[in-house]
Fold each of these.
Amino acid sequence: MNEPSIQIRDLNLFYGDFQALTDIRLDIAARQVTALIGPSGCGKSTLLRVFNRMNDLIDGVRVTGEVIIDGENILAPCADLLSLREKVGMVFQRPNPFPLTIYENIVFGLAVHRLARRNEYAGIVEQSLRSVLLWDDLKDRLHQSALSCRWSSSSGCASPACCR
């Protein structure tokens, strides 16, 4: 087995008085596929959000224990959240856009990591939207707020007003 890349020790997470995670102990190997399987509401997503400290953004959340990623306890008060979130990304089942325009949401990662020049953004946005068959629907609305559109995972846009 590979050396663990993530080590979880005595992890507990509370939403107010409700304990969502209880005494989790788990080693996750580097460079291996790991699946979390369980019924709805059992804490899978809550655990995943711990890995980049997204739960910090929720009022009333309290976390105890340790989560060691590449040798660093990410739950320590002095943990560098920007560095952590550069290393630990999240892909959600449903889109979770920033309060920016559609265009700005698409180029956000490129800009933060300086992976492309500004003059390349427009082509990358078009290529990205074409690859997921959304270019025709969104090309005229790239500078509208991404929050004005709620997407469903199966049929594109959930709001008829958004897609017109």
Amino acid sequence: MKFMMIVKHAEKQGLPPKELMDAITILAEEDTKKGTMLGNGGLAPTAQGARVRLSRGKVTVIDGPFTEAKEIIGGYAQFELKSKQEAIEGAVRFMELHKKYWPGWEGETEVRQMFGPEDFAPKR
């Protein structure tokens, strides 16, 4: 089963401490060696982004920063795991690193199962 971990937090928290990034790198290397991590990355601030929106039949582009955003997606990781419980345990390990290396940081990791083409194939 594929899972997406989506890290959300307030945008203006500054750069993460080097110790946290080092610990995340070690965790990611371990998960990659096990073959469970498929990909991951951190995202730049919204000031460097854009939104492309479809509303009422019209496509518009909105350059960042997005002042109305109270919470942003700061990063993601994709995993191939055996169960939702295994995904939750991985998210807890990841958040424990934040607790240890970035005291006072607040955010969440959303755990979502991913669909693939096989989930939409006609049943025979």
Amino acid sequence: MAGTLDDLAALSGVSRATVSRVINGGSVSPSTRDRVMAVLESSNYRPNLAARTLASGRSGVVGIVMHVDPRLLFQDPYFSQLLQGMSDALSEGATGMMLWLGNRSKEETLERILGMGLLGGVIVTAYNLEDPLVDGLLASSLPTVLVGHRRADRTASYVDVDHVRAADTVTSHLVKLGRKRIGHVTGRRGTVAGEDRIVGYQRAMDRAGMSTEGLIVDGEFNRASGAAGAAVLLDADVDAIFCANDATAEGALDAVRARRLAVPDDVALAGFDDLEFAAHLDPPLTTVRQGIRDQGIEAANTLFQLLADPEGGPRRVVLPTELVIRRSTVGGVSAR
């Protein structure tokens, strides 16, 4: 078994430097790369992490920054699915992961990440339109990929979905069903997803010639705000409610039932995310599937691209969404 670069070079018929370039992703001809990779695989060679760090300037460790309460990370199905996707892709790429949560202020977290000098790159959840942690990472030399868009920053690399278009689609679905007063319980104001989904809702309503005055109630992306927001909208005689996420819609369902109203006969109800529980509500929830785990995978792969080609410019990935119609809007319709 080959144990050193010299051994590998002798078996491959190339120089030690060429073997090093192959291991560290440097420039070599395809035929040479194939020959060296064949030797690496047959020799079961595993590069020493410290040696790779000295040779390439990269640690082989990626930072995952989710500035959320650590107690909520694995309780919230959105964050757990996103983290699972990132973890799976990083593991596939033989890359270590260092997780940063909301234990400290954003300013302190930024200072620690940039000051430690260990990470090869960072994936950060960019939910707020204004965020000193995200802004600081983008301004640094550390390769950074956002989950959540920064379209106004032409230098930012990000992975996201088109929240505006998706919210337009689900609202248009309610319009096509003949609903006349469609309310919206928003996500947290000041967030990328929350604000974009309001825009999509308003765009569909404007196109249909329907007023939104008094039909938008601020929420917090959670069940409690969904119940409170739906109560306000029911007082305004809505016949449909689009909620900014599935947890909000679950709360809205509680409020509708408390009024002894039926879904969808009296009030049609739709959400966003297509988390696992949405299909098991009674009635099952019409929602937007956005592939949360896929976003985590794509964020990790996008960071790999940045590390492999630092001069290649920003990468922007907008993943598709799908409207999943269930019985909360159309009675008797199976999920598809």
